[in-house]
Design a protein that fits this description.
One of its GO terms (biological process) is Golgi organization. One of its GO terms (cellular component) is plasma membrane. By secondary structure, the protein is an alpha+beta fold. About 30% of the residues lie in helices and about 15% in strands. It folds into 3 domains: about 45 residues, no CATH class; about 45 residues, no CATH class; about 120 residues, no CATH class.
């Protein structure tokens, strides 16, 4: 716009402007219409620098809306396990994502998800949790790896995943070291149980570590059922047993 107006000023000075020099003389005479147009160009740049067409605002908003749809449809940021895609909750920041080079996050789970799962253990010198093929070669666990069948336990947590069937066999064979291991996991904690319906146990834990350990004991047949200020009740392989509570050691960094 400034260039068009400057060109128009140059033409006007060439054809018409000189006729007014008699009535409106220059303080310092300029004999070049081109130079006058040059000065006018910068004058219009200053005058018009705040002029933004309304259509530009509309175009920018439409582009931002399109960006948000592309983010929602992007298969590279789609999570298959939970059938969850990205969701653009605002259209005002989408164009700024391309400027992001680093993401800094603390360990409180603001931008991350902390998941504690029971995957391996060592009992009496024997390690459980790895899987092996017929040639006794360790196999990497993937989403297609078959999980252990806990159907023998009607109170198991359906979401619990474990892949080494030898630990289940040791529990069924009543290995004393294995049973003592899971008995301790089911007893030594500060978890509170809640039975929402028959067989539907929900554990409320101060720490996800404790919740993962108690859930593991539950699936292997040592189920934490109830707590009172003085006792803890377990269901050990179908048998209900009550233990006297002597003391509580809070789950903190020293205890861990």
């Amino acid at each position: 716009m400034g260039a068009v107006l400057a060109i128009g000023n140059t033409i006007w000075e060439t054809w018409i402007g000189r006729k007014f020099e008699v009535f409106l003389p220059w303080e310092q005479f300029k004999n070049s219409a081109v130079f006058s147009g040059f000065l006018t160009f910068w004058s219009y740049i200053i005058i018009l620098n705040t002029v933004v067409p309304i259509s530009l605002y509309v175009s920018v908003e439409v582009l931002r809306l399109g960006h948000s749809f592309f983010i929602n449809w992007d298969q590279k940021i789609y999570h298959d396990q939970t059938d969850t895609s990205a969701e653009a909750r605002t259209t005002t920041l989408t164009e700024e994502l391309g400027q992001v080079e680093f993401i800094f996050s603390d360990k409180t789970g603001t931008l991350t998800q902390n998941i504690m799962v029971f995957s391996k253990c060592s009992i009496n010198g024997q390690t459980y949790g790895d899987t092996y093929d017929e040639f006794n070669h360790r196999v990497e666990i993937t989403e297609k790896t078959a999980c252990v069948d806990f159907s023998f336990n009607p109170l198991c947590d359906k979401g619990f995943r474990f892949y080494d069937s030898s630990l289940v066999e040791a529990v069924k064979q009543e290995d004393p070291a294995v049973q003592e291991f899971f008995r301790l996991l089911a007893l030594c904690h500060t978890v509170m149980p809640e039975e929402k319906s028959e067989g539907n146990l929900v554990y409320q834990a101060q720490s996800p570590d404790e919740g993962a350990l108690v859930t593991a004991a539950r699936n292997f047949g040592f189920i934490f059922r109830a707590r009172t200020p003085e006792t803890i009740t377990l269901c050990e392989m179908g048998r209900s047993t009550t233990y006297r509570l002597l003391a509580i050691l809070d789950f903190n960094n020293v205890r861990k």
